TrEMBL record:
SUPFAM superfamilies: Actin-like ATPase domain
Family membership: Belongs to the acetokinase family.
Class of this enzyme: transferase
Name of the protein in question: Probable butyrate kinase
EC id: 2.7.2.7
One Gene Ontology term from the biological process aspect of the record: acetate metabolic process
InterPro entries: Aliphatic_acid_kin_short-chain (IPR000890), Aliphatic_acid_kinase_CS (IPR023865), ATPase_NBD (IPR043129), Butyrate_kin (IPR011245)
Gene Ontology CC: one annotated term: cytoplasm
Catalytic activity line of the entry: butanoate + ATP = butanoyl phosphate + ADP
Entry superkingdom: Bacteria
Gene from which this protein is expressed: buk
């Protein structure tokens, strides 16, 4: 069965073609920043990115009818259970017109649905807003604000299954702490197959290459009312221009480690320190019963960083490194499980919207 996978990022769209579980080809379609700047809103990029995907499919000698399914990165839907969902008009309408968080992933299902024109099924798997948090984890400390589960769920769930199989167990039999270290950072606690707590990777937890993570709230209030920044400028400062970008001027950890000064590398150490602290917290969430701590994402490609994190947390559980991300594979497998009848695709129904 041929499956087309679509995974849009802020400046590129990753696409791949799978024959069952075998990846035939993967391409990163890079979009010129000047070209993207012409669009006021991410959704306005639909036709532009769709054309790039169609050109890719044609260049590989396929047409849409050749595929058994299109597997898309899930966008920021209201909180929902892990799994594979059918993309329908209802979901597309939500992503186009109602979602409150602008994220390139919102485009995937919209484009997939349009490409299919009802000819083949379209699915999403484990979107950013997968929510399996326990109730205690939802309490922020102020009734007006509820803590949200926003994480790199797609890669994290795939990596969880991979490490479980390395341990000869099922994901549902283990307790794990999994940290995805990319442009954003998600540190997550998994109890017997459910992701029961997570730092909202947009707003909380460690600072990351381009996000501030958690900040001292009193000082944030001062910044908000300083008159120096508009609301949008502040949002960009916290997500996009924060973290290492704010201190060192780049989100490229590899470059900082290879070419940076001692002072610049210190900020990577500070990020490692915050990551370790968050991992420790998630071990406490699991009451210390942790079968594995797993480090994944692009930054895990650096063994020295993994070793540094390990030096803080090795007493809590064995530490595994799964460098990179496996989002395209996870999307294809999510669709394949449904096509093979191993799993039933869920139908999404809009629930109370909690994301703002
Ligand atoms: N060998 C390496 N050593 C250190 N850092 C690395 C290495 N390879 C990649 N990185 C860093 O990983 C980061 C990018 O990670 P990744 O590719 O997971 O991010 P992304 O896909 O852009 O964002 P996200 O994972 O948040 O969706 C960059 O800071 C990059 O410099
Ligand atoms: C919000 C967490 C997921 C992402 O950054 O893509």
């Amino acid at each position: 069965m041929l499956i087309l996978t679509i995974n849009p990022g802020s400046t590129s769209t990753k696409v791949a073609i799978f024959a069952d579980n075998k990846k035939l080809v993967q391409r990163t379609l890079r979009h010129d920043v000047d070209e993207l700047e012409k669009f006021n809103d991410i959704m306005e990029q639909e036709e532009f990115r769709k054309k790039a995907i169609l050109d890719f499919i044609e260049s590989e000698g396929y047409k849409i009818e050749d595929f058994s399914a299109i597997a898309c990165r899930g966008g920021i839907l209201p909180p929902l259970e892990s799994g594979t969902y059918v993309v329908d008009e209802n979901m597309v309408d939500y992503l186009k017109n109602k979602t409150k968080v602008k994220h390139a992933s919102n485009l995937a299902a919209v484009i997939g649905f349009s490409l299919s024109s009802g000819r083949i099924p379209v699915y999403i798997t484990d979107p950013v807003s997968v929510d399996e948090m326990i109730d205690e984890a939802r309490i922020s400390g102020i009734p007006e604000i509820e803590r949200l589960s926003l994480a790199h769920a797609l890669n994290i769930k795939a990596v969880a299954r991979e490490v479980a199989s390395q341990l000869g167990k099922k994901y549902e039999e283990l307790n794990m702490v999994i940290a995805h270290l990319g442009g954003g950072i998600s540190v997550t606690a998994h109890e017997k197959g459910r992701m029961i707590d997570v730092n909202n990777a947009n707003d909380e937890g460690p600072f990351s290459p381009e996000r501030t993570g958690e900040l001292p709230v009193g000082d944030v209030v001062k910044l908000c009312f300083s008159g120096k920044y508009s609301k949008n400028e502040l949002k960009k400062l916290f997500v996009g221009k924060g973290g290492l970008v704010a201190y060192v001027g780049t989100n490229d950890v590899k470059k900082i480690l290879e070419e940076g000064s001692d002072e610049e590398r210190f900020f990577v150490d500070a990020m490692v320190y915050q990551i370790a602290k968050e991992i420790g917290g998630m071990c406490a969430v699991l009451k210390g019963k942790v079968d594995a701590i797993v480090i994944t994402g692009g930054i895990a490609n650096n063994p020295k960083i993994v070793e540094k994190i390990k030096s803080y947390v090795f007493k809590f559980a064995p530490v595994f490194s799964v460098p990179g991300e496996f989002e395209m594979e996870a999307l294809a497998m999510g669709a394949l499980r449904v096509l093979r009848g191993e799993e039933k695709a869920k139908t999404w129904g809009e629930k109370d919207e909690k994301i703002s």
